[in-house]
Design goal:
Distance between the termini: 20 Å
Number of strands: 18
Oligomer: single chain
Bound molecules: nicotinamide-adenine-dinucleotide, zinc ion
Largest sheet: 7 strands, mixed
Shape: globular
Number of helices: 11
Structural class: alpha/beta
Order of helices and strands: EEEHEEEHEEEEHHEHEHEHEHEHEHEHE
Strand content: 25-35%
C-alpha cells in the first residue's frame, strides 16, 4: 500500500481538494505508475460537475505520463522503469470489435481491478479509469504505452487524452487528407490538436472558429489558415464563404453543445463529414430536419479518444514531435502544483489557458 496525495472531487460542484489517497500494490495485470505530469482537461471539470456520472468521490486527472514503478503478474511487456503515457482505452483483444481487427472500437476496455481509496477506506472512482492527479496511480498494464522519454513528461501526458482526441478526430475519425478544407469549432486544447492534425494530414484550408479572440490567435500557431470569431460573425456563412460557397469537407465540433453541432452540420459541404469530439452533457438534445440529414449525405461521426490505438499512435506522434513536425509543447500553457488544480479549472473556464499541466 502506498500513501500519496491526490486531487479528489467529493461532491457535485464542490471545489476539489488534495487528500491522502491509498494506492494498493499492483495485482495481476496491473501496474503502479509514478506520475510525473498530468494535464487539466475539461473532462475533469465535467466529472466534478456531475456531468459524467454520480459515482463520487472521484480521483481526478487522466492526461498523464510517468514511470512504471511496479507491475503484477501478467503485465505483458510493461516493466518497471518504462516511461509511459497512460491511456484510457486498454483494449481487450477479445470483444467483437477487437476480433474484427478494429481494436480502436473495443467495447470492453479495462482498468485496474483493485480500488484506490481515501484514508478512511472510501473507494475512489478514478477519472476515465486513471486518476493521475496523484503522486502514484494504479492502472491496468494495458493502459501504459511506452514512448521515447526524450519528449518530456508534460508534453507527453497531453497525448494521453485531449491532444490525442483532437489529432485523431482529424486524422482517424475525420479521415482528413491532402487538399481537404477543414473547419474546427471550439479551439481549446482539443480543437487546436484537431487543427494540428489537419495540418499534418495536408489539409489545404483550416478554418478555426471560436467565441474567444485569444483562442483564435493561438489556433493560427497550430496551423489555422483562417479564423472566424463566432461571437460576432455567423460561422456557417463565414465557413461557406471561405470555401467557395460550399462548406468544408470536414467540420470538427470540439465544444460539445447542440448549437455548435448544428453549425458544424450546416457548415460542411454536401457529402462532407461532421466529427463530434466535444462531449455533451446528459440533458442536451438535438433537433434537425431529417430531410437535411438525408439530403446532405456524407457522414456524421463521433470520435471517442480520436479513434486512437495508443500502441500505434502515441509513439508515432512522439516521433513526429521529436522530429519537429508537431509541437506538443505548445499545448502546455503553464505548469502547476497538485494543489492548484481548482485554480486551473477557473483559468480553463475563463479561456486563459490551453492546458495547465500538473508536474510532480
Ligand atoms: N471525445 C473525446 O475523446 C474527448 C477527449 C477529451 C476532451 N473532450 C471534450 O472536448 C471538448 C473540448 O475540450 P477542451 O479541453 O479543448 O476544452 P476547452 O474548454 O479548453 O475548449 C473549449 C473551447 O470552445 C470554445 N467555445 C465555447 N463555446 C463556444 C461556442 N458556442 N462556439 C465556438 N467556440 C466555443 C471555448 O472558447 C474554448 O476555446 C470538451 O467537451 C471535452 O470534454 C473529448
Ligand atoms: Zn476489445
Ligand atoms: Zn481529457
Amino acid at each position: 500500500m502506498h500513501e500519496v496525495r491526490g486531487v479528489v472531487a467529493r461532491a457535485k460542484g464542490e471545489p476539489v481538494s488534495v487528500e491522502t489517497v491509498l494506492v494498493p500494490d499492483p495485482g495481476p495485470g496491473e501496474a503502479l505508475v509514478r506520475v510525473q505530469a498530468c494535464g487539466v482537461c475539461h473532462t475533469d471539470l465535467h466529472y466534478r460537475e456531475g456531468g459524467i456520472n454520480d459515482e463520487f468521490p472521484f480521483l481526478l486527472g487522466h492526461e498523464a505520463a510517468g514511470v512504471v514503478e511496479a507491475v503484477g503478474e501478467g503485465a505483458g511487456d510493461v516493466v518497471p522503469g518504462d516511461f509511459v503515457i497512460l491511456n484510457w482505452r486498454a483494449v481487450c483483444g477479445r470483444c467483437r470489435a477487437c476480433r474484427r481487427g478494429r481494436p480502436w472500437y473495443c467495447f470492453s476496455t479495462h482498468n485496474a481491478v483493485q480500488k484506490m481509496t481515501l484514508a478512511d477506506g472510501t473507494g475512489l472512482s478514478p477519472a476515465l479509469g486513471i486518476g493521475a492527479f496523484a503522486e502514484k496511480t494504479l492502472v491496468a498494464a494495458g493502459q501504459c504505452t511506452k514512448v521515447d522519454p526524450a519528449v518530456g513528461p508534460a508534453a507527453a501526458g497531453l497525448l494521453g487524452c485531449g491532444v490525442m482526441a483532437g489529432l485523431g478526430a482529424a486524422v482517424n475519425t475525420g479521415g482528413v487528407t491532402r487538399g481537404d478544407s477543414v473547419a474546427v469549432i471550439g479551439c481549446g486544447g482539443v480543437g487546436d490538436a484537431a487543427i494540428a492534425g489537419a495540418r499534418l494530414a495536408g489539409a489545404a484550408k483550416i478554418i478555426a472558429v471560436d467565441v474567444d479572440a485569444r483562442k483564435l490567435e493561438w489556433a493560427k500557431g497550430f496551423g489555422a489558415t483562417h479564423t472566424v470569431d463566432s461571437s460576432v460573425t455567423d460561422p456557417v456563412e463565414a465557413i461557406r464563404e471561405l470555401t467557395g460557397g460550399f462548406g468544408a469537407d470536414v467540420v470538427i465540433e470540439a465544444v460539445g453543445r447542440p448549437e455548435t453541432y448544428k453549425q458544424a452540420f450546416y457548415a460542411r459541404d454536401l457529402a462532407g463529414t461532421v466529427v463530434l469530439v466535444g462531449v455533451p452533457t446528459p440533458e442536451m438534445t438535438l433537433e434537425l430536419p431529417l430531410l437535411d440529414v438525408f439530403g446532405r449525405g456524407g457522414a456524421l461521426k463521433s470520435s471517442w479518444y480520436g479513434d486512437c490505438l495508443p500502441s500505434r499512435d502515441f509513439p508515432m506522434f512522439v516521433d513526429l514531435h521529436l522530429q519537429g513536425r508537431l509541437d506538443l509543447g505548445a499545448f502546455v500553457s503553464e505548469t502547476i502544483a497538485l494543489d492548484e488544480v481548482e485554480t486551473a479549472f477557473g483559468r480553463m473556464h475563463h479561456g486563459e489557458v490551453l492546458r495547465s499541466v500538473v508536474v510532480l
